[in-house]
Design a protein that fits this description.
heterodimer; A: about 400 residues; mainly beta; 28 strands; about 10% helix; globular; B: about 350 residues; alpha+beta; six-stranded antiparallel β-sheet; two-stranded antiparallel sheet; 16 strands; about 20% helix
Chain lengths: ~400, ~350
Amino acid sequence: MRIICITLICFSTLTLWAQKDIQKKIQTQLIEATDGSTVELPEGIFQFDASLSLDGKRNVTIKGAGENKTILNFKRQISGAEGIKITNAFNITVQDLTVQDTKGDGIKTQLVEGITFKNVKAEWTNGGQKDNGGYGLYPVQCTNVLIDGCSAVGASDAGIYVGQSKHIIVRNSKAYNNVAGIEIENSWYADVYDNEAYDNTGGILVFDLPDLIQKEGGYVRVFKNNIHDNNHINFAPKGNTVGKVPQGTGVMILATRHVEVFENKIVNNISIGTAIASYFITENPINDTSYHPYPSDIFIHNNYYERPHVKTTSKGRMGKMFRFKLHMGKNVPHILFDGIENPNMKDRNICIKNNQNQSFINIDAGNKFKNRSNDLKAFDCEQQPIKAVELSASE
Amino acid sequence: MKKRIVILCIGLLIVSFFSFRSNGSVERKDTLSAYGFFNGVLAKLEPAEGVVLYNLNTPLFSNYTEKLRFIKLPEGMQAVYNDSSVFTFPIGTVLIKNFYYPNDFRKPEKGRRILETRLLVNTEGGWEAWPYLWNDEQTEAFYDPAGETKTITYIDKAGKRITTPYAIPNKNQCKGCHIKDKIMVPIGPSARQLNGDLQSASGKQNQLTYWKEKGMLTALNDIHTSPKMAVWDDAATGNVNDRARAYLDSNCGHCHSKLGPANTSGLFLDIHEKDPAHLGINKSPVAAGRGAGDLQFDIVPGQPQHSILVFRMKALDPAIAMPEIGREQVHKEGVALIEEWIRKNTF
């Protein structure tokens, strides 16, 4: 017995040492990577106690042996607010690997021109818990962002989150068990298509928030996605804006302009199929005088809606609103507009047309919900289609 | 003909000699001792000729380490003074920062353990960070860009035995703090930080005066008009607001400023920030993830217990803790200052 114990202790110490060596080796490779090189990560599960970082590089690929074959696990992490951080770089690809159980964000990329995630998974293995990190895949202040064939699971904010970026494609990806599945925030020119977002609190969110460097976003297309069963309880920390998203939300457009949502399947999301809301719905104060809190130029068309005959959530501030102000019972309309008027813009160009099973409510939230209406007449219009995103070719 | 060639050669030699000198560039070496910054036993950190010790009024907290800072300017060259930001240093300047723990904080004579020496070198291509890790024997420090985590034990000021992980940052993480508008820069040596006394063998002297007298600094006219930052833990140097703003500037402002890497958050804590919302007052967090806790605003005037700023300073979880690196322990005294500042509500 004693020998077994000693052997076990020796073995575990050895593997720990080996892990520490691998951490150092990979980090050194990332620091020394030359222009045009590929840092190959072998198959296996590797433990890290600190973030890995790539900085100031051009044309570098970080490549594993496969999404579920190369697993970087950060459960024992004691330093760094993300698993992998990529900064101040040009044309970087991360592919064929999984980042697990980071304390903060999974993979954060900041100030990168040309960032591709392909077949990458960011996950928290214990499912949706409030102690999980905020974002799975997290490009911020980047241009030419491609997220293709990726997965994000269990983020306490957003699984796939693109913030303050320009020229973005998110496709063929899956997001589940997150608070927000996929979120495009304060970003310009984004195409989000052929994704599956399910079992999140909210499936796909397009947000514009105040107080940021990149002030506003727009020209976002959300199409051909399968957005279903996003009824996960909201487990975001309270202060975060996504903490206000009601459980059971398919798509939410918050304060963003020029958004087209079409040909999606938006199914079995119990509270709202598609929401169009101003920032006032968050009840947060606005200190930023240059911020536009109203959504406009919105086109919701040719989507398929379906929901079970059940009540909305009654949780959170929005749940209270459903329950005590809107009195919808089990007949919940698919599309919700907050109806808060912009005094400076009478015609907001919000068009809702040709959706299968479409139903609608204007909740008149700016007027104590007094003049609620299901009348779509004022929204029966069309918008010019938004142009497809083209990522500029890398050098 | 031969004579002319010889003269030409000598001429070339002289030219190349002078261009080499004025260029003053420093090459990276594998060991710290190879630079010759220190005389005698390396671990004593006795500065060689031309290597000058300096202090900052309010330094960055780094997991309770003590720091010894030195500067080496290329021979005959000077830093250029300005009032508001870090001085302009000539190419070839090396800033040498040594991180150590006294074995017993109450008894410095019991020795110390030096963990790392970080060189910030102004090269032709801009500033670069070269980290050196000390060996356990304390005889040498070796260039190591990858960083690592060590376990440290020491006796703190209260006589308590502390065992703490100490994460030595990697080269990229150095840049994580030292970057401003995409360019790597030093953080410490500005007028407001250096405008204070340095105790040396020859007595007490103001550092700016000393630098000027030694010919290390140009463009400084009158030291009496130079800004002076409060010493965060010395009430004689400023009121709570001055000291809290000094602390936030040194510990947060390098990232949390309009041109720093944390500008994505809209929270700016550098000493120049005047806008209350950007300073965090009743400001909602952005992309803070779990960092927000269950709190609504970065700073709630009068209520440190409801302010995200304090929550994150008190956290050890790497997803929440601020600053993001060098914070394996909570800086209790720093937290107390910021709590007092928010409670008194005299922003």
